[in-house]
Amino acid sequence: MNSPTITSASLVTSPARGGIAVIILTGPETKRIIGEIFRPVSQTGGQGSLALGRIVRDGEVLDEAIVSTLADDCCEINIHGGPHVARKVLSLLSERGVHIVSDCQADSTLTLSAPGLGNSAITEEFLSALRKVSTPLGASALSCQWSGGLSVLANRTKVDAAALRAAADAIPIMRRLLEPAEIVIAGPPNAGKSALANALVGRNVAIVSETPGTTRDWVRTLTDADGVPIWLTDTAGLWEEAEGIDAEAVRRAWERIESADLVICVTVGDDDGYDGLVAHLHTLTNVINVVGKCDITRPEECKGKLAVSAKTFTGITDLRRAICEDLGFGGFDPSSAMAFTERQVEWLGIAAEAIDRGDQAGARLALENLLQADG
Ligand SMILES: Nc1nc2c(ncn2[C@@H]2O[C@H](COP(=O)(O)OP(=O)(O)OP(=O)(O)O)[C@@H](O)[C@H]2O)c(=O)[nH]1
Ligand SMILES: [Mg+2]
User: β-strands 262-267, 287-291: how paired?
Assistant: First the structure.
């Protein structure tokens, strides 16, 4: 990237997309402008750093954001909220004197590489993958591969095969950021499944009622657990004697359970009759057992278990963490080198094999191909 003389911003995600927007800010005033509009609440240090915080205008919070500093004169702003918020942030940047690059001009960024990394192929894959992510964490993990991580690894003059294989082996976790896992809430009727779904999503997506059998057809919502995107499905209560329309609701619930990546099994302390059901769930898939309504459940029923309350929000943070860990995001570091396309995995493998044979030139060539496709 040539050193720009004016500071400009381009929206690299589709203007029509709903979940996330990514704005790349480049130019000599980048640092000053970020200092004026961004209030970090936590951050890692130095170049390639990530900061979580808020975009503010005159004290009003426009959105939560993750800002990746790619160089002194280049950073990436990952925001929630889709086009409406993106427009607000672009207009804020414009007020600060930033030149806003139009959508068709922004297309030319597709041919750019990250500063000093000569990675035009990874750049293209990065911009294309960005269109699929729905959380700032996903966008940050991708941008880290573009401006650091994978691209830096492939640029190293001396690289060992184990590091290349580790980057290739990380593709499932990157895929989880692009293709959200299917998480299903299941359990007996009236256990508090729908209320728990609402607590996890943060708004009312499912009907809650004291009448057992309230949820009939399942309700599926795209949300996130600590930045990890998930499809969360609330299902009908499972009971064996169901007949007619209830039996159909139970059948549809089992169908969702069987295709889930992870099931959150909610029971309350007094439903001993459901031991068989819980045991059966465990034979099917990954299960996190949760004791629901812990604000009214006897304490001894909750002891040593993941106990949650949709009423007091007790345990909801722990449950989110447990979901992330189950999906492989425990200790996730978005800045470590990770492949996010099959093409990258292939070239990393070819380079690792060349190193195994002592063929350094072959490894270099494979890594050039990883960076530039026809390099
Ligand atoms: N005290 C308390 N009550 C809860 C909690 N969660 C749910 N409830 C209540 O329990 C009842 C059932 O809640 P739902 O979330 O509809 O239960 P469900 O498991 O979805 O029920 P079905 O859809 O009928 O299978 C409602 O009256 C809720 O207000 C909780 O954490 N604490
Ligand atoms: Mg329900």
Answer: parallel
